[in-house]
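User: structure tokens for Major facilitator superfamily domain-containing protein, please.
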Amino acid sequence: MDKLSPLTEHLEQPEKENVSQESEIAYSEAEVRQIKRKLDVHLCVMVAVIYTICQIDRNNLANACSTMVVVFFPFYTIFQPVMTVIARKIGPRMFLGGITAAWGAIMVGFGLIDDWQALVGLRGALGLLEAGFFPTCVFLISSWYVRHETAKRIALFYLLGSAISGFGGILAYGLQQMHGLAGQSGWRWIFIMEGILTVIVGAAGWLFIVDFPEDARQTRWFLTHREIEVMTDRVDRDRGDAHVTPFNLKEYLGNAFDWMAWMFALNFCMTAVVNYASAYFLPIILNEGLGFSEAAAQSLTAPCYVFGSIVGFAESWLSDKYKVRGIFIIINAVVQLAGIAVLGYAKQSAVRYFGAFILVGCCNANIPASLTYQSNNIVGQWRRAFGSALIVGSGGIGGVVGSLVFRNQDKPEYKPGLYACFTAASLTIISVTITSVAMAKKNKEQKRTDLVLQGTPGFRYTL
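Assistant: Done. Predicted tokens:
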């Protein structure tokens, strides 16, 4: 039997009673479970609520104007690396709560202004604010949990938000019934009411979201000093990067030379193309292509997102249990190909809706799967921050593509959009295959020669 390092032995054996060689902290599995339950509420559930608001806002502008959809993403993409560094410096509690309240104020502005150019400007400002949200959440989750616990947590915050936001169209339809109240149009009330709700949620986030471990020592109120030490010790055992190092701009940007980081980004970008295309234009396809009324089309999108959440949660649980990542992404992408084909070429409306069902379900399940695949295979706080910004920023590029591929002039077949989704799903399969094969070779070499991967002795990639 090969001689394994203590770190590798820990990764391959179930956690029962842990004693850190450095800190000599002893803790039981039962104690760890209790701490994780606290974190799940104050971190994963709280950011899920905020993300729900974010998704509802995006979906509400989907049918307004292509310019409104597209102008969001350049700001959202370009400012990812900068906003992630700011979040790391000032702390996620203040950062996430602050940007959420700010975009709530912007949403209220959507409902009050009359100038079209001002509306475009506010949409760009919203993109800048949201640039810091998603990568900060992924970065924060990975800072508190060991690698093989993150899939369920990322799935919780993303899929819960995605499932609930699937009912955003119904909420918007209900708020439109306020048309004429106080002399305001129904569409204005959508943004005013949802904006007020967003500000309230942002304030709650400032109160309840947990900070990074070293900041939580000063700002904690629901975690004791020992509980913070226990979680920090577990992360150090898992990958040795629980403590932040001084920021160096050259080293931070130097992470861009890692080819694997770009493959992770390509994978997420292609996943986002399918995800955003379906989110923006599925109601249009259901309405114009399948003949459902506008209200029915809005309502029929919700079950697709609920299905995606069920699939995503189940896959994430299995992924954490068996410590595998890439195979689930590939399976989802294959099912996406089938869903696109059924949606695009079947004749019966019920069959085409089934195609939309599995397409939206599996591409939503692939979002947390792709994020976990990347976060499990990078080590170092600032490398992790850059990687989170890069992969989520690439998702912004995918959002631009996805928001443009289904065009009005292509109805009712929408063939260019279908072809784009075919291509994106296929590239997802290719990118995950390439990175998984490369990482498997490195793992074999590490096992044979004690090769140091990611600058961490005993570290192995999660395939």
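User: Anything notable?

Assistant: The longest strand covers residues 17-19.
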